[in-house]
């Protein structure tokens, strides 16, 4: 093999592309993505690595085969694997050895626990490998958790997240700052799991690194940088001797994130066993020191055991208390995380790479990973517990599944792009070529989502119109889309709605695959499209970036199979999984009232399996599923994760984007519905929690707002950048001003949805919102501000940040009229024949002339007539003649916005 793409090699090795990328990076070979090509020396290095590993494994297996009958089997299998590997197939087909998603081994038996930082001991670490010292153990006695941090289900041997271990008799103690946690401690572990010894008898250096250079062969298997000695006389051996005691007596120190984990139950059981043996005073002291550490078990205080705090303890305590804690959510983008830490994102990315995690700016990292990185910068992060503000949380019907219960589910894809770039054609082509014929019934109805089969893999397409649906759902807290396909016409290039779509996907943290469409056309220029994509922050893979671009034709079908392959590959990298064996949770994609059938809802099952006959609840709508159909209109009994289904039986039409939950019985459903009604009432009273310029100051003061997100719409391109620059400069230590989207054009519904989903404010310069945007902004409580001069906007935001925004007059739009015809009246100028779309037009109001959402003129009404008579006002649905003072450029379809300046009390 002289050349191979990463994903092909991964397939051959039966690894996830992401896992393989991590391994390859660990070998010092640079790969950008699963599409990167490996060849020459790089390929040799990678193949060599896997051969070596296989050989090593086999050797070990052979060595042990005499000891255990069972292992004979295993080595045979490994031998098979080796052979398979030679054929570049099924390297790890039977997965006797586990690797978690980050290519870090796991162990399902989990007999020995490991700490979160992957700095593990591994008794049998002969098999240990990988650059970050994440040990592989063929005996699988050691467990590893989802993030490649080994853990211990049985928690017989426990290590806490931060390696803050203690020991009943305090012989093995440690503390974060290498200060003596317990003066009796003979051996300790510091925060980085580097053993230390106060008396330095076994001889550790200050950083406790490399105690024994050869330690990598240690039976205790500490990592290569922080080894215990091979020499059994040294600390390593003492540790070995005492290991059992130490582990029996281990005290669990978990943070809230860890506590949430699956192993909770067993963990607590383990604690119960160890309870009597714990040094309770130590627990208490640690708890005192860092309230974010929940020490277990320390429920009962043993006064007799309480020791007086020594000076060094107190010193330690005060230092710990002084450490600034940063609150972050369960999952956070690298960008946001860097900002929270107050460090450059490049530094964070390089630390992540050092941990074997390839993450871009907008990629999300979980809390555990973030806390590791924070430590590297000497900071402590704590889990932000969000306030319960929405219905879904109140229902509390969702819970995290155990990793072992999760199975791969099909990806859910949304197609987005500029008007006429071929979204519908692409979806139609896929649907026609990939569905129908073999499937009974064909497509009988439009249900907003459908499934296609690609080489026995499924892909679910959301057939809702573009990103509106996508953000509408997100604003209600639902994340339905896993991958977005961005359609860009090769003859037209990146257009305003393309940029909108990019920003929507980025805001939702959804990976983008670009379909460069219409390549069959004469004017097609895919390279130009790539340049424009790069200009807009999407660097194509073949240009060294990580965005997959695929030339396609929705007309001829060229490239579409490859595009779908790419979708499956991205899905694989994303590791989309769900537990099918639980009560179902899904999201309502579409819903309407059908005359004959009552409320009909298309839902997408996201967790669990929905059954016909299940009792469900969505918002205030409840009911037993009377009948259920798939996307081909076929009656079905069950719908598993990622499956779209149409359900009948709800009491009322649920809102698109709402969650739907299966519950155990009608009483439960009614109970929840009532609770939701109550919450909705409260929320109404609280008038939403969306940010507006008026309450900005209070939110900043309350510490509820660290970032002001703004969407900027302007009449000309140059203004977008000017406004962006000026506004971003307003960021200060307390709040950051972040322009999440900037574009030319009127304020549309899509902008409002993005604002609602992202909790942003919309600012328009010389542009106005469409009627739909106005209605939606009212419904969604989105603050839309329009200005004629940049200076005014900057001033407003400045004042808002200081809490001094207090204008006494605000403008109130009282109506809108459409120009249906124009007349030239000698001596007066052009008069418009108008139709009042909504509200009213009053003679003394001010008007604004809009064309495509852009303000062409602001002024006063010079004449208002109903038929031939002067009129004081024209109401909705009426026609009349309207003249604008000193203005004649009126055209059919122009919109006349009518407004008054109104005094308001603040
Ligand atoms: N030659 C060629 N024409 C295409 C291709 N894809 C779409 N078209 C044509 O482009 C036009 C617009 O395609 P649509 O699929 O309606 O585009 P859309 O993005 O769904 O448009 P909206 O729904 O209006 O946003 C239609 O006339 C299609 O026939 C293609 O690959 N090649």
TrEMBL record:
<feature type="region of interest" description="G-domain">
    <location>
        <begin position="411"/>
        <end position="559"/>
    </location>
</feature>
<dbReference type="InterPro" id="IPR015760">
    <property type="entry name" value="TIF_IF2"/>
</dbReference>
<dbReference type="Pfam" id="PF22042">
    <property type="entry name" value="EF-G_D2"/>
</dbReference>
<dbReference type="InterPro" id="IPR005225">
    <property type="entry name" value="Small_GTP-bd"/>
</dbReference>
<dbReference type="InterPro" id="IPR000795">
    <property type="entry name" value="T_Tr_GTP-bd_dom"/>
</dbReference>
<dbReference type="GO" id="GO:0003743">
    <property type="term" value="F:translation initiation factor activity"/>
</dbReference>
<dbReference type="Pfam" id="PF04760">
    <property type="entry name" value="IF2_N"/>
</dbReference>
<keyword id="KW-0396">Initiation factor</keyword>
<dbReference type="InterPro" id="IPR000178">
    <property type="entry name" value="TF_IF2_bacterial-like"/>
</dbReference>
<feature type="region of interest" description="Disordered">
    <location>
        <begin position="261"/>
        <end position="315"/>
    </location>
</feature>
<dbReference type="InterPro" id="IPR027417">
    <property type="entry name" value="P-loop_NTPase"/>
</dbReference>
<protein>
    <recommendedName>
        <fullName>Translation initiation factor IF-2</fullName>
    </recommendedName>
</protein>
<dbReference type="Pfam" id="PF11987">
    <property type="entry name" value="IF-2"/>
</dbReference>
<feature type="region of interest" description="Disordered">
    <location>
        <begin position="55"/>
        <end position="237"/>
    </location>
</feature>
<feature type="compositionally biased region" description="Basic residues">
    <location>
        <begin position="297"/>
        <end position="307"/>
    </location>
</feature>
<dbReference type="InterPro" id="IPR053905">
    <property type="entry name" value="EF-G-like_DII"/>
</dbReference>
<dbReference type="InterPro" id="IPR023115">
    <property type="entry name" value="TIF_IF2_dom3"/>
</dbReference>
<dbReference type="InterPro" id="IPR036925">
    <property type="entry name" value="TIF_IF2_dom3_sf"/>
</dbReference>
<dbReference type="Pfam" id="PF00009">
    <property type="entry name" value="GTP_EFTU"/>
</dbReference>
<feature type="binding site">
    <location>
        <begin position="463"/>
        <end position="467"/>
    </location>
    <ligand>
        <name>GTP</name>
    </ligand>
</feature>
<comment type="similarity">
    <text>Belongs to the TRAFAC class translation factor GTPase superfamily. Classic translation factor GTPase family. IF-2 subfamily.</text>
</comment>
<keyword id="KW-0648">Protein biosynthesis</keyword>
<dbReference type="InterPro" id="IPR006847">
    <property type="entry name" value="IF2_N"/>
</dbReference>
<feature type="binding site">
    <location>
        <begin position="517"/>
        <end position="520"/>
    </location>
    <ligand>
        <name>GTP</name>
    </ligand>
</feature>
<dbReference type="InterPro" id="IPR009000">
    <property type="entry name" value="Transl_B-barrel_sf"/>
</dbReference>
<keyword id="KW-0963">Cytoplasm</keyword>
<keyword id="KW-0547">Nucleotide-binding</keyword>
<comment type="function">
    <text>One of the essential components for the initiation of protein synthesis. Protects formylmethionyl-tRNA from spontaneous hydrolysis and promotes its binding to the 30S ribosomal subunits. Also involved in the hydrolysis of GTP during the formation of the 70S ribosomal complex.</text>
</comment>
<feature type="domain" description="Tr-type G">
    <location>
        <begin position="408"/>
        <end position="577"/>
    </location>
</feature>
<keyword id="KW-0342">GTP-binding</keyword>
<dbReference type="InterPro" id="IPR044145">
    <property type="entry name" value="IF2_II"/>
</dbReference>
<feature type="binding site">
    <location>
        <begin position="417"/>
        <end position="424"/>
    </location>
    <ligand>
        <name>GTP</name>
    </ligand>
</feature>
<feature type="compositionally biased region" description="Basic and acidic residues">
    <location>
        <begin position="270"/>
        <end position="290"/>
    </location>
</feature>
